[in-house]
């Protein structure tokens, strides 16, 4: 793995830091599934800038790859500019807490990324994906009960699945966001290809799911 370069910028100086690459959360399925050997190898460099104040003001921090800990550089985050790539930002260090998908563009305050507060303490870049999208969802843990395969966005889970809950999932193709409420609102949960035997494995405290969306905007 190559080291990740990040820059800390202030009004008066500019210092360059080099961080060691931090791997994605380790699931045993990720060690053998094809995204680990193909999509990550095609990862293109991105650029994201976090600002402490609204409207891209104050101290800011520039990053071009995964970072498991941002708190050393910024005490808070009230605006973000994504210059390239698609990113996941996390409320807490080590890719935990509230999750937010960020496409290329400007976010002048945390409400623009549906943030629950002004804390962003880790981030990672979403690898590019070329091909189909497919996820299989289950009504029970460990892939039990009724199941359904989805290959497209679903703005309201209740219209395509008998339940508003997903207790386990198998992401076979592409990268997906599970949303807590219909119409892609509420808490967000990022799922990469692999098996999730219970909802806690994608970071949720509840199986309640209102909608599902593919991550298709990468650049």
UniProtKB/TrEMBL annotation:
Residues 46-84, 85-127, 174-216 form the Beta/gamma crystallin 'Greek key' domain. It holds the Pfam family Crystall. PROSITE patterns: CRYSTALLIN_BETA_GAMMA (PS50915). One of its GO terms (biological process) is lens development in camera-type eye. It comes from the Eukaryota. One of its GO terms (molecular function) is structural constituent of eye lens. Keywords: Eye lens protein, Repeat. InterPro entries: Beta/Gamma-Crystallin, Beta/gamma_crystallin, G_crystallin-like. Belongs to the beta/gamma-crystallin family. Crystallins are the dominant structural components of the vertebrate eye lens. This is Beta/gamma crystallin 'Greek key' domain-containing protein.
């Amino acid at each position: 793995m190559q080291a990740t370069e990040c820059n800390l910028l202030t009004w008066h100086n500019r210092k360059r830091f080099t961080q060691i690459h931090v791997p994605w959360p380790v699931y045993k399925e990720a060690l053998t599934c094809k995204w680990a050997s193909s999509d990550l190898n095609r990862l293109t460099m991105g650029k994201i800038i976090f600002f402490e104040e609204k409207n891209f003001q104050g101290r800011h921090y520039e990053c071009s790859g995964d970072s498991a800990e941002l708190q050393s550089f910024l005490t808070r985050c009230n605006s973000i500019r994504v210059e390239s790539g698609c990113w996941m930002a996390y409320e807490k260090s080590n890719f935990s807490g509230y999750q937010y998908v960020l496409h290329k563009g400007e976010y002048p305050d945390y409400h623009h990324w549906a943030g629950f507060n002004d804390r962003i303490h880790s981030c990672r870049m979403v690898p590019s994906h070329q091909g189909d999208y497919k996820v299989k969802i289950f009504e029970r843990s460990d892939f039990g009960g009724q199941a359904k395969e989805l290959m497209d966005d679903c703005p309201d889970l209740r219209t395509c699945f008998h339940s508003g809950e997903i207790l386990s999932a198998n992401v076979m193709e592409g990268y997906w966001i599970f949303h807590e409420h219909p119409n892609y609102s509420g808490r967000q949960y990022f799922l990469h290809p692999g098996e999730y035997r219970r909802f806690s494995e994608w970071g949720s405290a509840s199986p309640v799911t209102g909608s599902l969306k593919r991550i298709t905007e990468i650049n």
